[in-house]
Amino acid sequence: MKTLVRDDIEVEREARSCGVVHRRAHATVIWFYIVAALFNGEALLREAELMPYGYGRDIAVAAARPLAAVAKLTGVGRLRAWSERLSPSK
Amino acid sequence: MLFPTVAFAIFFLLTYLGRWALARRPVAWKTFLLTASYFFYGWWDWRFLGLIAASSAINHLLAVAMARHANGRSIKQGLALGIASLVLPPLAVWMIIRVGGAERLADRTGLSSAWAENLIWFAGGALAFALAGCAAAHTGGRLPDTPLPHMRTSVTRGLGVISVIINLAFLGFFKYYGFFVRNAYALCGSLGLACPLPLLDILLPVGISFFTFQAMSYVLDVHRGVIAPAPSLLDFAVYLAFFPQLVAGPIVRASVFLPQITRLRPPDRLDVGRAATLILGGLFKKVIVANYLATAIVDPVFGHPEACGGWDTLFAAYAYAVQIYCDFSAYSDIAIGAALLLGFHFPINFDAPYFAPSIQAFWQRWHISLSTWLRDYLYIPLGGSRVSPPRIYANLFITFLLGGLWHGAGWTFIVWGGLHGLYLGVERLLRAPGEGPPLSRGRRLAAQALSFHLVCLSWIFFRAESFDDAWTLLGNLTRMTVPEHGSLAVLAMTAIGFAAQGLDGRRIEWLWDAIARRPAWVQALAAAVTLTIILGLGPRGVAPFIYFQF
Fold this sequence. Notes:
Oligomer: heterodimer
Structural class of chain A: mainly alpha
Distance between the termini of chain B: 16 Å
Largest sheet of chain B: none
Strand content of chain A: under 5%
């Protein structure tokens, strides 16, 4: 097993300029949020509808409804449905 | 606000965008990060914001006073101003509320009187914090930006002692008061005496053990001349409250964090590949493995040990070892990954601990930030290994007893710590002097298996609700009956969780770099698919992380 010198990971990776420039990192993060929201749109709507009645629920449902609609229309919600069917916990 | 929730996802996105939008304005982004961190902490219970703000102000004032004194400057004025700034605003708030200020504010604004009172307390707290910051910056001249070599005078030592007493008083009151009073009642009862201490129902502030240890390490490092004090209260407050590690660690040292927060430019590159792997790997360990093992076997067996047989107890002991690793290392990984995306590097906190060939090696790989803290601020000051052999064993034992107590106010935690102290003592006794020849593959495997089982045995005390339960569980191991909770699925998930140690350290560095080479949309798509599968496979709703209670 490789012995690891702690704290050196960062120093070494910084010295090797690992990672990506900020602009690319920001693009990745924003794309990730958009795609993940679409993939999980229907589950988000389900979760929002289970919230107790009030402003919070209204906002969550209003935000999740278009995501769920797009997910259903394009079929990207199937990934979540498929993984839920395989879940050992549900 | 738990990590694997929609609320945290939205909070993190807003914090990420704000942090990088303000990246060129240091005061603005630090203020923004502090506000975000306090919002994150206040989400649990906003009343404890005062505690963390007070801890920041008091510890920073004391560290600054140390540096000033070591620099040959007077500290009386600064300390007097600091104390006044922390005492007078709360006093003023108390008086305003006493003379009906909250009701008048409620009448004018339409708020309820409870909210008006809260608002006045919040304003008073913010004022006290700002004034303490001014007091720390007061008395002219710059603070030294390099550590001072001659910090240890009687005055700086006294300031250090005051800081330790205040920090331990916070921790002792909120975390251990109930424990000590219950034991005092039991002791007095057995002696036929009346216990004069009142029983109080004290709410434990989330993460108090973590931020208190961070604050103590800061003041002690300034005292030892390891670091210079933070340039401002804002810098120190961001360090103490930085949200990724605030409630369950890792215990990041000021010497690691402050240089990153005080540098003028943010890092040029962000290690997105590593951050994504850490966050998604952490979510996998927590949402799928830890949650499943908790509900399928650990909670039923440890909740009703008398109703279980030997096989169930054995499976539950293994499963708990894997559950606590997957739970806690997941929190650390997500914290490290989130911090990376915000431009901060934290040292790793876990490094495949169950692959360790000895208990000593286990503690070099398990909760590394705590074990190194205990080593540097408790074991070494007690004399460490540079004293007579009996003292070395006593130091080891005391360190681990207190390490156990740090985890929770209960005798089962103390026994857990004591067992580890005992293991380490015996290991030291049996170890041949010098390095010795490297272990053969077979002997190494045997040593790994023995260490793992000793750790599993100690986890029974750590997880059991009481001593009686722990003894019942150990007794169960002598009667092997057909398992009710243990199943192939449980065994498979335990094995998967055990194998997840392969994600620790830099074992998958190739993957971090491979991810970083892909276009942004491919990285985003891969991460979103992985996240969706993890969330789909996990249960509905997520249990809090185990280490939140510590």
